[in-house]
Amino acid sequence: MKKIIVFLSVICFSIFFTQAQTDFEGIIKWKITIGSTDNVSENKTTLSPQQQVDLKKSIAELESKMNDPQMKAMLDSNPAMKSMIEQQLATMKASGEVNMNALFPKSYTIKYKAGNTYTQVEGGVTAALGDLLFLKSTDKTYLIKQAAKTYSIYPKSSNNDSTTYTIKATTESMKVLGYTCYKYIVTYTKNEHSNTMFIWSTKELKQYNKSSFRSKSISNNTSEKYFDKIEGVPLKIEINEKGQKVALEVEEFKTTILPASTFAIPSDYKEVPYK
After folding, report:
1. Is residue 120 part of a domain?
2. What is the distance between the alpha carbons of residues 153 and 135, in angstroms, rounded to a whole number?
3. Is residue 223 included in any domain, yes or no?
4. Among 128, 166, 184, 261, fewest CB within 10 Å belongs to which?
């Protein structure tokens, strides 16, 4: 479960678009849909013995985070989120089932301007962890906790990833936001374990420079191994991992002038170590 959340984050924060002439400034929102590839409930998944071990580790890590003073302050400012997380922890401990729709975020919103990005997560446990701000001028990502008025420097991901990818273009198409998208099949292999994802990409947004859509946030260079080989603009991604089906789809693509203050750490925010 933890691995698919991390992989999901890498994909969301690594999207970039086809090369063109104009740098993009605006907002892109990705909605996230969670399902199951097995004949079980779409909302709950019974875990295997190994997944149970992983789940216990995740519960311990989450409980530790919830006991952190900064996290406590954030959750106290959002009683609904606090209640949801506490209920999920109780269910996970009691039954060994995971309500994936509740744990996963419902969407990601990424704001772009001049090589800077600001990422906000809506819904799920990860929303309580904070926002991500990448500043081109410092080449660093910051974890912003609005309720606590703090920020931390997010550690960079390692580029030493042995994952290999094969990409196959198809003629299968679908419409996303009115744009015609074509399907790519991406097979990725690591430690002799292979999995597949499907990427739907459109060639109808040629007016933008692809580098202006890159959000470095918490990603490394591994995503470039396959996105560089995909033509056009990815607008939908489907991933199947350990019985879970995760779909990401752009539901808002908006060009707008954003204030520089969106991409600045407020002067009254205190820097704290990343935990």
Report:
1. yes
2. 11
3. no
4. 261
Kindly list the averaged pLDDT for each block of 10 residues, start to end, along the chain of length 275.
Answer: 48 42 87 67 54 70 71 62 65 58 77 92 74 92 89 76 84 96 89 84 82 60 65 87 79 95 95 86
Burial of 239 by CB count in 10 Å (0-12 exposed, 13-18 middle, 19+ buried)? buried
3-state secondary structure of 170: strand
Q: Is residue 147 part of a domain?
A: yes
CA distance 197 to 166: 11
- Residue linked to tokens 């954003």: 258
Beta-bridge mates of residue 22: 208
Domain that holds residue 76: 2-14+44-155+258-271
pLDDT at res. 40: 42
Amino acid symbol at 6: V
Residue 49 to residue 241: CA distance in whole angstroms: 16
pLDDT at 144: 93
As a dihedral over the C-alpha atoms of residue 188, residue 193, residue 196, residue 199, rounded to 10 degrees, the angle is: -30
pTM score, two decimals? 0.70
Q: b/e string for 24-51 if b means 16 or more Cβ within 10 A?
A: bbbbbbbbbebbbeeeeeeeebebeeeb
Residue with tokens 């606090």: 82
Question: Residue 68 corresponds to which tokens in the numbers above?
Answer: 């952190």
Residue 159, Cα to own-chain centre: how many angstroms? 18
Q: What's the structural domain count of the chain?
A: 1
